[in-house]
Amino acid sequence: MAEPTRASGGTIALLTAISMLGQMSIAMYTPSLPSLAQALGAPAAEVKLTMTVFLAAFAVAQLVWGPRSDRIGRRRALFFGIAVFLTGTTICLAAQSIGMLIFGRFVQGLGACVGVTIARAVVRDRFDRTEGSRALAFIGMAMAAGPALAPAIGGQLQTIFDWHAVFAALALFGTCVAIASYLRLDESNRNRDPHATDPIRMLANFATLLRARVYLAYTALAAAFFSGLMAYATGLPFLLIDVYGMSPAVYGLIPSATVVGYFTGSVLAGKRAGIDPPRKLARIGAIAALAGAGVLALAAPLGLEHPVALVAPMIVFMFGFGLALPSALAAAMQPFPRMAGAAAALQGFVQMATGAAATLGVAAFADGTSRSMAVAILLAGSVVALAAWAAPAEEKRA
């Protein structure tokens, strides 16, 4: 195993770019969702399915990329995954029907997930828990620009060109990440496991992870936060564009408001790493998330479905997300140095699977109001709180 080191700016910048493969594929795409329904002659439910399928593929494939990186190394696994991502993006770019687009998004999701899986494993390889928390917090701060900039870029591309331009931009981004990783990413897995992808070993590793209370609690917390975010990303564009008549270009600017909350929480998390224990930060973040979700849930019953009433509570929710997540992820990964890839993969799988379930729920119960979106976010905030209070103070290394 590589000796723990201090997080350098160059390493953080590269790991951030790698992590953003999936995030950019989600956030840049959302302003085009209503337009896709018209362009491809598909109902809104089928267009929303392109997001659900992406998240489902993203979830399952992590169970492959993580153990594979434990076996063949982080670099090789990353490059294989980016190749799959670019293949899926090309299929999306050439799609002439909703069926082909759904298939392309599935392939794209299979590859996009390699980024966040490898980035988290590299953080575990290189840094101890305190430095890992700081690294993840700084990555979170930088990644906060993604949800702010990506929809704005996607909205402009949709307005100036059409939805094809979004996938062209994603292909360019994936290519740049591959080149930068080839030039600057050193192999961090110094203790490869030749049996890591053996099905029996994989199941045994996953069972070990799920028996660890610290891993289970913080993985549940991260998954619930992400499901709330995905419910919001799926429901909001149809409300603001279809119901309120907002243009895709203007809608693309909306997520920058919620990112303020996430960025602020990440900044505070970076400052408090090594001072406050992960459980304390998780509980404060959970209180903020539950408060924001509760206020949002009141919007429809009280007839307050103004855009401000839909966005402002999510700023509070996202503050809790940014504050709780870095230390929680680092604490969950820390006891498992010999299966960092598997730990990151299972963590990501649970995160994306719950995110996919949230998008399905929002789409299935959509009624032209914020109800289904708000209920999903309130449920997410409740699970975040339960997980934060279930987390132990610390756990021995396994």
E-strand count:
0
Which class do the helix and strand fractions yield?
mainly alpha
Query: What is the element string, with H for helices and E for strands?
Result: HHHHHHHHHHHHHHHH
Broad shape: globular
Give a short account of the largest sheet: none
Uncertain spans: none
Helix content: over 70%
Question: Would you mind describing this structure in some detail?
Answer:
- This protein is an all-alpha fold and 398 residues long.
- The chain has 16 helices and no strands.
- It has helices at residues 9-27, 33-39, 44-72, 74-94, 98-126, 129-143, 145-160, 163-184, 199-211, 213-243, 248-251, 255-272, 278-297, 307-333, 340-364, 371-390.
- It is globular and about 55 Å long.
- 59% of the residues are buried.
Write the layout of secondary structure elements.
Blueprint: H1 9-27, H2 33-39, H3 44-72, H4 74-94, H5 98-126, H6 129-143, H7 145-160, H8 163-184, H9 199-211, H10 213-243, H11 248-251, H12 255-272, H13 278-297, H14 307-333, H15 340-364, H16 371-390
Helix pairs in contact: 1-5, 1-6, 1-7, 1-8, 2-3, 3-4, 3-5, 3-15, 4-5, 4-8, 5-6, 5-15, 6-12, 6-14, 7-8, 7-12, 10-14, 10-15, 10-16, 12-14, 13-14, 13-16
Quick rundown:
The chain has 398 residues and is an all-alpha fold.
What would the keywords be for this entry?
398 residues
